[in-house]
Known about the structure:
The chain is mainly β. The protein has strands at about 5-10, 15-25, 30-35, 65, 70-74. It has one domain (about 5-74). The chain is globular. The termini are far apart.
Amino acid sequence: MGSYPHVIENGGGERLTFLGVRRGEDGQGYLDVTNEVKPGSGPPFHVHYLQQETITVTEGRVGYQVLGGPEQFA
């Protein structure tokens, strides 16, 4: 990827902006990303086996589902 910010638009209403990599106080590495999504769009269901994902919704709502559970919105 090289330099930041790096933008990816998927053509389906989603825009990811990779802001950079940082090391937290806990010593862990973090990838900071912003994501803009048009209503009704977004990434397909996916799994992070070795990573944690934290999302902060600044406008609108986000749908999510934990494996085996019902679809939910926040």
